[in-house]
Amino acid sequence: MTGSAAVTEVVTLASELIAIDTSNTGDPGVRSNERAAAEYVAEKLAEVGYEPVYVESGAPGRGNVVVRLPGADPSRGALLVHGHLDVVPADAREWSVHPFSGEVRDGYVWGRGAVDMKGMVAMTLAVARAFKRDGVVPPRDIVFAFLADEEAGGFYGARWLVENRPELFEGVTEAISEVGGFSVTLRDGVRAYLVETAEKGVVWLRLRVQGTAGHGSMLHTDNAVAKLAAAVTRLDRHRFPLILTDPVRELLTGVAEITGVPFDEDDPETAVARLGNLARMIGATLRDTANVTMFDAGYKANVVPSEARATVDGRVLPGRERAFEAEIARILGPEIEREWDSLPPVQTTFDGTLVDAMVSAIGVEDPGARVLPYMLSAGTDAKSFQLLGIRHFGFAPLRLPPDLDFSALFHGVDERVPVDALTFGTRVLDRFLRDC
Ligand SMILES: [Zn+2]
After folding, report:
1. Is omega for the bond preceding 120 within 30 degrees of 0, making it cis?
2. How many CA atoms lie less than 13 Å away from 133 in the CB half-sphere?
3. Percent of the chain scored above 90 by pLDDT?
4. Nearest Cα to Cα of residue 55 among 143, 153, 171, 161
5. Ligand 1 centre from 89 Cα, in Å?
6. Whole-Å CA distances, 397 to 81, 285, 303, 340, 362
């Protein structure tokens, strides 16, 4: 049976990876440490005969591991399979099990990283090991990369490697990684697997406004805190224009075919609302969004401060970058100073031989299922790899129970992944990589 050795060990690998705390706060003052996880991965690869490259990217402990498995046809571009080893922090007091236990209980592997994304890292590692042990030669080169710092922009991981060690990815034309390939149950037992073909762009906006400082007991008409609060409230109430992009249209059309409920192009919001738990995320791909996430001002109850600052997390549809910037300027007004940190959107088409291989691998393991494209509202390391001209898909296959609120598990409390989803995903990944 395809991938049986990989299936046997994937749960142990996932559990052991979760038990290595690789929390990444994104705060430069708190050192993150992926080294132990990177060394674990490198050791598992070396054990079966690989010669993995371990790279510490610009700072101690920020470990990355890259290895190449040569394919049958070196003239074809290579496929990159990448996963990040860091996780967002977790507060153990809020959890039913310890977030860094990797405990296997009630049919799930529990812990921070179970879905984002040590589960997929374990699947990748399991298949890579099985291929080496069994002497499998894939149709083309496969580059496996296990990366640091995705949760803070990849500046010690994907982005650093792309800028400093591009030779590790020489000849890579396409890539797969996280947040795609998971199932949603749309109608009694009919599942659709959503493959990520696009990601919104990221714009982190730092806002600042000046006012007149003074005693809190007196009359004030130029209060920096009040001015900035009013500005971010205007932004919060603003609705950016609704734009039906290709991946969202294809997704909603596919869903309509499966459910038999027609989809009205003039009213995609109604169609999205029918997606249940997924509506929060898919709904955010119908338009740009801008959520205020940090607000900082003042130092004493009776002092009106001279300055207030806020941070806004903006997410922008492909092609909307200029329009978004203009709209933000209009809403905030000239008095609010703005600084931008942006990462570009990612977009490709849902076609070609790699997509055919995904559809066929899922079709064998889950007959009758459909595979549809979608746009991710968030960002991944794909943003860095596209700088090398690499075409990207989110494909980390998982067959999920119909009632699981999958998107809520990302960065959530009691993050966990079904054991059955991991073994299913390993079988799909095994088939897919033999056929890529
Ligand atoms: Zn992730």
Report:
1. no
2. 14
3. 91
4. 161
5. 13
6. 13, 21, 55, 35, 8
Q: Rounded to the nearest whole angstrom, what is the distance from the C-alpha of residue 83 to the centroid of ligand 1?
A: 8
CA 88 to centroid of ligand 1, rounded, Å: 9
Ligand 1 centroid distance, CA of 178 (Å):
6
Cα–ligand 1 centroid distance for 121 (angstroms): 11
The token pair that represents 135 in the structure block: 């002497």
Alpha-carbon gap, residue 201 to 195, rounded angstroms:
18
**Cα(191)–Cα(206) distance, integer angstroms:** 41
Instruction: List the alpha helices (DSSP H) in 69-150.
Output: 118-134
**Average pLDDT across the chain, whole number:** 95
Confidence category of residue 2, pLDDT binned at 50, 70, 90: low
Cα 410 to ligand 1 centre (Å): 8
Rounded Cα distance, 383 and 109, in Å: 29
- Distance in Å, CA 278 to ligand 1 centroid: 17
Tokens of 239: 């609705």
Contact of 89 with 395, CB cutoff 8 Å: no
- For β-strands 214-215 and 391-394, DSSP reports them as unpaired
Instruction: Determine the distance separating the centroid of ligand 1 and the alpha carbon of 86, expressed in angstroms.
Output: 8
CA of 150 to the centre of ligand 1 (A): 7
Amino acid (1-letter code) at residue 232 = V
**CA 231–ligand 1 middle distance (angstroms):** 32
The beta strands (E) that lie in 318-380 are given as 337-343, 346-347, 370-376
Q: DSSP string spanning 170-183?
A: TTEEEEEESS-SEE
123 C-alpha to center of ligand 1: Å?
15
Q: Which residues surround ligand 1, an ion (CB under 5 A)?
A: 116-117, 178
Residues 154-211 pLDDT 10s: 999 999 999 999 999 999 999 999 999 999 998 877 899 999 999 999 999 999 999 9
Find the largest Cα–Cα distance for the chain: 79
Tokens linked to 221: 């008409």
Name the pairing type of β-strands 214-215 and 289-297. Answer: unpaired
Burial 21-41 (b: 16+ CB within 10 A, else e): bbbbeeeeeeebbbbbbbebb
